[in-house]
Amino acid sequence: MASMTSISDKIARVTDLSNYTDITPEKIKKIFDDIGSSPEKLRAALNLWFVPDFKPTFTRTKESALSTLQDIEFLEAPDTERPQRPLRMIDLDTGNIVDAWNISHLDSYCILSHRWKGDEITLAHFMRAREKHMERIRTRTGAASNVETIAAQSDDISLVLEQCKLDILDQEQIIEMILQQESEGLSVEELIKRKVEANEMKWKMNSARQNRDSKKSLVDLSKIEKKMFDTIIHRAGKVVDGNTQDSQNAGIPTATAEDIVSGGPNVPQLDNSGHATTSTVVSKAEEAYAQAEKDFEDLLIKQKAVGERTQIFQKSNRLGDEVDELIRRLQRWKSAIKLHNSIKEAQRIFRTSHFQRRGARYIWSDTCCIDKKNYGELSQSLSLMGDWYSNAEFCLVHLDTNSREADAIDDYLKFGTEVKNSEDKGPAATPNIPSFREIKSTIEWASRAWTLQELVMSKMTYFVNSEWTPLSRPIENLGDIYPLVPFIELHTEGITSNIYGGLPEILDRAQFSQWKIGNFNALIPYLRETDIELVNESNNGGRWETIYQVEAEQVRESIQLISVLNALGFRFPANMTVETATSEISRAVYLAASDLDRSKRHGSEESGIRLLAELKKNYLPNPSGDASPSDVNDTEEVIKFLLLCLVAKVGDLIVSDRRFIAEFGGVRPLTTWKSGIARSGFPAQLVLQLSCSRVATVPVDHVYALMGILGVRFPSFHAEGYAKALARLLDEVIVTHNDVSVFNWAGAEMGSPVRGRSMYPASHKAYGTDEDRGRRYNMMISAKVRQDRKQTMVTYHGIIQMLRDAIDCVKDKRRESIPLHWVREITSFITNSSFENLQPQLVNIGKILLYIKLHCAQLKKAASDQSAQNDGSKDATNSDEKSSWSLNLTPSLPSLKSSSEKVTSSIPGFGLSKNIKSGFGKFSSKTSEKAVPQEATPSPPAAPPAPPAPAEPEWKQLDSGVTEYMRVMRDADKSQGEKENPLPKRIKDIAFNVIEPEGLERQTSDDGEKITAENLACPNPIIVNSSGIEGIFDIQRIVVTMIDREKLVRQVAKATSPKQKISGWCTISTGFANVAVHFACEQRILKTQLDVEKATEDKIIKETTRAKKLQGSIELQSVDQVVEGGMNLVANTTIGKGNSDKQAEEKDTTDYIRATKEEKTVVRMLDYIQESQLQLVAGEWVLARFSGVPGAKWFLCFLELGSTHQFYGQRIAATEIDFTNSAVEPGLMSAWQIYMDRKKRKMCKILETYIKSSENAKQGEEKLSKATNLANDSYDKLTDAGLQRFETAKSFSPMSPLSKRFPFSTSTEAVNDTKANVADVDDEDDDNFFDDFLEHAKEAAISLGHYTVLAAYEKFFEMQAKHMDKYLAVSVLKKTPKILQSAVENLDENKGFLPAMFHSGKRVHMF
C-alpha cells in the first residue's frame, strides 16, 4: 500500500491534477487504493485518464501539391556497403563464367529459376569441360604455343555442351561392349526403357507401402479417437436437449428451421455406431486404407511382370550401373541445353524490354555459379541468395514438365536425332503450356521450396515453357519500370491537383488513362536511341493475341511516356520501399525540373529543353486558368502529369498481373506482394505456412530457402540437422523483427527436440492448417452444441412470436369472442413443457393461435354500430324521459374518467338516501312541465325493435376438436412417438411456417484479424539465449480434464524416464468455453498435472464447502414476490377470489430462486480460474500468449516457480487452441437453457396476466350492464307509478291528495293539499314502493362500484404485463448468478467466448 501511495503521489505531482476541478490528487489516491496493487488495472486506469481530449488532424491543402525544395527529404542511408551480388555469373555476351572481382556494381544481371531434374551441370563440370577441351587441343595441335589461342575461341557454354555429347557417346560404347560380352541382343534404347521401368516400379512400390502403412495407422487412431469424442459429443448434446438419450444429430448445423421442426432431410441421422460426424471420420479413413491396400496389391502384380523384364540387371550389376550413368549423362546434357537456351532468352528480354544498359549483362544459375565443393562459398551463397534475387533485374522462370523417369527415353531419342542424326526421332516435342494465361498451379515449379523465395523476392518474372517458347504478356515490356509503378502510385496518391489535369480536388484517373501523345513520331528526334528502339519494338502489336490488344495498347502508350520522361532527365529511383517511395519520387521530380530550369536560364538548346517546349505547345492539355506557378513548378507539373498518366495506364494492369502470378505461384496470401509494394518483411507465420505446401530434396533446404524472404542471415551448416537449423532461423526472426508469429504453431507431434526451445516446433509443417485433428473434433463438438442450441432458439423464437400475437389479440379492447380457454390451455402447456417436447407441437400450436388471430378475434364494430342505431332511435322517441340512463361505458380504465363523468352528471345524488326526493325532484319538474299541458294520458313510448340474435362464433363449433387435441398433446406419451393429429380440418389446413430468426449462425473469420507484420510485432522485449526465451506473457488459468485418465496414469507409471514423451487428449475449460486438445509432453509434466486434475475435480467440481461459501452470491429472491403478494391482496379483497390455482405454475417467480447444480459448478470453476495470486497457479498447466500482440495465439504451457526468474515455463506441444470453434461449457449451457426456459415462462406469465385483464374487463362489462339495467328498471317503475297516481288524482279533483302526494310535484299547492289530506292516503302501500326502489338503487350502486374496481384491476394487470414485457430479459437475467449473466447474454446473442480472465504482463522464462 505504501508503494501504491508513492505512485499516486508521483502521478499527482507530475501531472499537477490539482489544476483540474473534477479530479483531485486525493481522489486519485483513493481510487488507486480501491484498485489495489494490480499493475494491469493501474495501467488501464492511467490510460483511461491521461488521454488527451484533443488530437490534431492533418489535412493536405492545394498548396502542398506543388513540391518545393523545402518539401524534399534528402536523408540517405550511409553507403557502408554495396548491394550484394553473386560470386560468379555467366556473361550473356561471351557465354563464359565470370568471377565477382571482374564484375562492376553497375552491371546488370538476371537469375534463372527452374526445377532441378536429375543430375544438373555444376561448376565442376565446367572446369572439367575446360580441361578436356585443353587436352583435345593439345592432342590435335601437338604444339603448346597455340593452345591458349585456340582455347579462347570457345566459350564455356559451348564447351560444356560439347563435353556432354562426348560423355554420352563414350558411355554408349561402354554399354555396347558389355552387351557383347554378355551375349545379349538388346539395344541401348531398350536397356534404357527397361531400366526406367525398373526404377519407376521401385519408387512406386516404396510410395505405396508408405501410404498403406500411414492409412492403416490413421484408421486405428480414428477408431480410438471416435470412442473418446462420441462420449464428449453425447454429453454436449445431453446438456442442450435435457435428456439422457441422444435423439438429436451431431451433424453440421446446416438444417433450416423447418427441418428442425419437422425433422427434414437436411438433419443428418445417426448410424448404429454412434454419432454421424465421428463415424464419417472413421469411414473415410477406412475407405482411404482400403484404396491404399488395393493400390499396393495391384503394384505387386505389376512388379512381377516388370521383374521378369529386368532380370538382365540382376544378372549383371555392372550393366545396370552403366545404364544409370548413361541416364545421368543425358540429364547433364539436357541441363547444358537449358543453360544455353536461358542465355538466348535473357538476351532477348534485355533487348525487347525497358532495361537501362549501364554495363555488361549476366545471368546467374544456382546449378553452376556456386562452387559446392567449397563449403565456405556454399554457406555464404545460401545466406545471401535472397539478396541476390532481390537485386536482379528480373527472374527468368523455366516451366518445364514434371520430373519423371521416362524423360530419359525421350532425352536419348532427342540426342540421337540432334547429335547422331538418327532416323528414329521419337515423338514430336510439344510445349506443356501454350500461353501465359494457361499456366496452372499444378506445375511442379510452384511446389519446390527454393522457388518460393525466387518468385517473391524478384522484381519481376518472365516465363518460358518446356520448349523455351516465351509465355509473354504485354506488361512485361515495361522492364525495370514494372516494379517501380506501384511505388510511383504511392507518390501520385498525394497529388491533389495538377494544372494540366484540371481543378477537381480528386483527380480523375480515367482522364489520365485516356490521355496519350498524339503524333509521337514528331518527338522522336528528342529521344535517346535506346528509347527509340524500345518504342519501335512496342509498336509491333501484331504479335499479341486478341485478348491482349487493349493491354498492349496501354503498354505501348506507357513506354512512350517513359521515353519522354527519360528525355526530360527524370531518373527513376531504384530499390524503393513504402517508407521511402514518396520522398524519392519527389526528389527525382524536383531534380529533373531544376536541371531543365538551369539549362533554360543558361540558354541551352539541349534536347530536353526543346522537348519540354514542344510538349507544352502541342501535346499537353491547356493549363487551368487560375494557375500561376513559377517556371520550376511548371516543369514539375509537366513531369507529375506524365507520372499520373503512366500510373493510370498500367497501375491496374501490374496489380492484375501479379495477382494472376500469385494464383499459380502459390503465394496468394501475400497481399502486399500482389499490390507490388513489398518483396520481403512478411509475417513469419504466413511465410512458413506457404512453405508447408512445398517440397525440397534435402529437408534442411526448407529452412535455408526462407532466409532471404524472412530477412535474416546466418551461416548454413547442413550437418546440424533440420530441427537445429529451424531453431536458428526462428531465433534470427525474433532477434531481427520481434515477430511473435513464429510461436503460432500447432501439433502434438511437433515439439522441438532442441533444449531451451520448447516454444519452437520441430518442423515448419507445424504452421500448416491442412490436417489438425484437434480442430476437426472441436468443430464436431461445437457443431453438435450449435445444432442443438439452434433447435432450441428456433423453438423459442417461434413460441415467443406466437405468444406475442396472442397477447395482441387478448389485449385489444375492440375485439370480442376470443376462446380464452384455448389460449390459457396452450399457455399452460408451453409453461410446463421443455423445448424438446414443444418442438414437434410447434407448428400445430402456431396454427391454433393463427386461427384465433385471423378468425376468432372479431372487432366490435358491428355491435357498436347496432347499439348506436338503437340508442339513436330511443333518444328520438324518448329523449326527455330516458336519455340520462342511456349509458355506454367500456370497462377500460383509460375511458373510466369520461364514463364516470356521465354517471355523475346523469345521476345526481345517486347512492345518497337522504336526498332521494330532492334529487328526483329535478327530473320530475322537467317531466311535469311537459306533462301538464297534455289533455290526454300520454301513451308509453314505443319499444325499439329487438336486435337480431348474434350468430354463434365459428370457433365454438371447433371447440371440442381443439380441446381434445390439447388433451392428447398434454397427456401424450413421449415414448410412443407422435400420434395422429386430431386437429379439426379447418385449423389443420391453415398454412403456418416457422421462420428462422436471423443471427443464429455464429459470425466467424473468416477473415478474423488479418495476419500483418504490424499486429504480430511484439512491443515488449524478447530475450533469446541458449537456455530459453524470456518474454512478457498473458497467463490464463484453466481447468484441464483428461479424456482417458486411466490410460495416461498407466503410461506415466510405465515410463522409463521423466523425459519420456507421452501423448493424450484432454479438454481445456476457461469456465465459459472448452476445447479438446491433443497434447504430448514429458512424463514429469504429465504426472504433475494428473495430480492437479484429481485435486481440482475433488475440491472444485464436486466440492460442497465451496458451494456453501459462494451461496450468498448465487441465491436470488424473485423481484416479483412483493408484486404478486399485492396482486393477490387486491384480488382477495375486491373480488373475493384468490390465486391459489396458479401458485403451482408460478412457483419459480414467487419463491426464492436458487442456482441449479450446473450453475453452481460453473460458479465454482470461475472462482477457481479467477485466482488473483499467480504464485498459487504455479505447478499447473495454463494458457499463455505474448502480451500486447493482437495476432498472438494461446498455447498450452506448464508454469512453475523459478529461482532466477519469478516464473519458469515450458510449452506443451498440442493441437491448435482455437476458441472461435470451441464448445460452450456444459454448466454454462445448462444455465443458458434455464435462462431460456425462464424467459419462456415469463412470457407465458405475461400472456396469463393479459388474460386476467381481459377477464376482469369482461366481468366489469357484466357489472356495468347489470347496474345500467337496474337503474333503467327502477326509473321505468317510478315513471309508471307516478303516471298512474297522477291520472287517479286527476280523475277526482285538481286538489286530490293522491296528486298532492306525487313525488314529482313540488308546487306549494300540492304540498299544502298533501298536508290537509294525509290521513286519506294508504301509508302501507307507499312504504313498500319506496323500499323496493331503494333496494334496486342499492344493488345498482354496488354493481357500479364493482365495475369501477374491476376496471382498476384490469388496468393494473395491463400495466404489470407491459412492465414485465418491457423488462423481460432483464428480470429473467437477474435470476441467473451474477457472475454468469454476461456469459449467458453472449451465448444468447451467439457470441464467442475468448479467454478474458487472465493475468497480463507477467515475465516468464520459457525453456
From TrEMBL:
Q: Give the Pro residues compositional bias ranges.
A: 938-951
The lineage's top-level taxon is Eukaryota
| Location of region: Disordered | 863-888, 923-955
Q: Where is the composition biased (Basic and acidic residues)?
A: 872-883
InterPro entries xrefs: HET (IPR010730)
Domain Heterokaryon incompatibility, which positions? 334-454
Name the PANTHER family for this protein: HET DOMAIN-CONTAINING PROTEIN
Name this polypeptide is given: Heterokaryon incompatibility domain-containing protein
